[in-house]
Amino acid sequence: MISVEPTEKLCEQIRSINGVTVVHAAVAGENGTAIFNVMENSQTSTILPNSSEPTLAQVSVRTLTLPTLFAEHHLDRVDLLKMDIEGSEIALFDSTPDDVLKKISQISVEFHDFCGLITPQQADQVEHRLAGLGFSRIGLTRANRADTLFYQPKACGVSGVQSLYAKWVSKYLIGYKRVRARRA
């Protein structure tokens, strides 16, 4: 397991987990360095300059693309890529060739179209591209794309019936249970 994290404090915490290789960097659309804006709400820290939240600090961090990450760590296949990179997801997808994306079985991504860091059209373009590469999509939030799972059914050993179940039945069953719990 590899964790790419631009926040040094979180890197230190992750290093204590057995079996995790920590890369102190930000995954981005290009290799190099960027200013990482550390926000009051640490979950919204970003390399993007236009945030509406107060910035506590700015630090220089290494940036790397997915192809570079794959090459540096000799990755031929990735079972799960989880990405919550505060608006940088579009640049990352734009800079990643199809052959690299096809090496990933599942991609969990938080699109930031709900807060204006990207546009809904940009998220749509990524969705269409991934669909063209054989990925199926499950939206895990009702109102936006804050939690989206893309997966390659064949790579994950998922049949057509299982895909339909995951996409529709389990999602709405879980939602129904949540609504009932709130009313109780």
Task: Walk me through the structure.
With 184 residues, the chain is α/β, with parallel strands linked by helices. The chain has one domain (2-183): Rossmann fold. Helix content is 36%, strand content 26%. The protein contains seven helices and nine strands. It has helices at 8-15, 66-72, 89-94, 98-101, 120-132, 153-156, 160-183; strands at 2-5, 21-24, 26-27, 32-39, 55-64, 78-83, 104-109, 136-139, 148-151. Strands 6-7-9-8 form a four-stranded mixed β-sheet, sandwiched between helices. It has a three-stranded mixed β-sheet with strand order 3-5-4. Strands 1-2 form a two-stranded parallel ribbon. The chain is globular, with a radius of gyration of 17 Å. It starts with a strand and ends with a helix. 24% of the residues are buried. The model has no long low-confidence stretch (mean pLDDT 86).
Short description:
By secondary structure, this protein is of the alpha/beta class. It is built from seven helices and nine strands; from the N terminus they run E-H-E-E-E-E-H-E-H-H-E-H-E-E-H-H.
Quickly give the CATH architecture.
Answer: 3-Layer(aba) Sandwich
Sum up the overall morphology in one term.
Answer: globular
SS elements, strand count: 9
Rg is 17 Å
What is the name of the CATH class?
Alpha Beta
- Let me know the largest β-sheet: 4 strands, mixed
- The unreliable regions are none
Provide the domain count: 1
Strand order of the largest sheet: 6-7-9-8
What is the overall number of helices?
Answer: 7
Write down the oligomeric state. Answer: single chain
Percent helix: 25-40%
Instruction: Report the structural category.
Output: alpha/beta
Give the topology string: H per helix, E per strand: EHEEEEHEHHEHEEHH
